[in-house]
Amino acid sequence: MSNKPEKNNVKAPELLFPEIRSQQFFISAGIINSILRGETVTLEEASAKMYPSPERDTDKREERISYIKQILPFTSGKQPAPYIEAPVPAAVSNLEKSWLKSMLKDKRGQFLIPDPLRKKLLSKLKDTEPLPLDAFESIRETGDPTNDDKFQSVLATVWKALVKKRKISYESLDVKGQSHSGTVSPCRLEYDATGNRYRLIVWLEDEKRSVKINVSRIKSVKCTKEPIPDNTEKQFQKFLDSHRKSFTMRLFNESNAIDRAFTLFASYDKTADYDDTSDTYEMTLYYYDFDEHEILQAILSLGSAAIVLEPEDLRSKAIEYWKKADAIYNAEE
Predict the structure, then answer these.
(1) Could you tell me whether strands 197-204 and 269-275 are parallel, antiparallel, or unpaired per DSSP bridges?
(2) Residues whose CB falls within 8 Å of the CB of residue 244, separated by 6 or more in sequence, listed in order
(3) What is the pLDDT at residue 175?
(4) What gap in Å lies between CA 170 and CA 247, rounded to an integer?
(5) Whole-prediction pTM
(6) Which residues contact 310 (CB under 8 A, 6 or more apart)?
(7) What is the rounded distance in angstroms from the CA atom of residue 219 to the CA atom of residue 329?
(8) Which UniProt keywords apply (predicted)?
């Protein structure tokens, strides 16, 4: 009888987005491959590729630079020599291929990829089985009509303008039915996973401010040939910085409020500290003042399980909202 241990033939589960194959990994690989091809890459260029959004926090900015120097030994005035001598291959796992095919076949994301490229990729993946998304995806019956052809056409036009850095001409209706139109520079396309809604942020050059538009309210849109001015992003970031605010609230562990809060505010920068003595969270969120109405609605949806601690002006507004909601509720009884 053999005393050798039996081999464990159980295969470890494959992760779809493992940390080692993150977006940061592929960008790092691209920078390394560029240098190995003989191209010149500066520390500033590497940082811009790794982190497209400028970091306001000095400590975090230094942390990012430190990370880049770990993979590329930048020294003053010299081109870095990568620690490896061969290009990094962009190998794709079978699971990633299955995920990609599922996304390519999902009508809700058709606007992201031009039809010719989608057809070419699907042809390359003809022998790949897509993931059974219907087994675990959340079907949303509310929010934007993401399966609607006209809605997809609007998204595709907006996405094209963002990719090509061109202005759009549009017409939309606000919640009061008032028509708005013009030629503007698109800055961001946001998706709210909680409400299943898309919002477009545009820059108004004459007024030096940004406006957020619900994509579902856009009646017509066209990608023009006029380029977005080079200084638009800088002006937009300056505008955001001047309108950035924060608030702190306490969350009680009742009515699933903590999980709901993290879901409601998933798209916002935040910090959260847990107090095990009271079983509560103290959460600080950062937002822009033009999002204040949405912030207040989200806070109120958490009911008595959420208390705004500061600032006092937002706390007072939340109380006023509560009083109005209570008055309407009592009037209906």
Answers:
(1) unpaired
(2) 286, 287, 288
(3) 81
(4) 35
(5) 0.69
(6) 247, 248
(7) 35
(8) DNA-binding
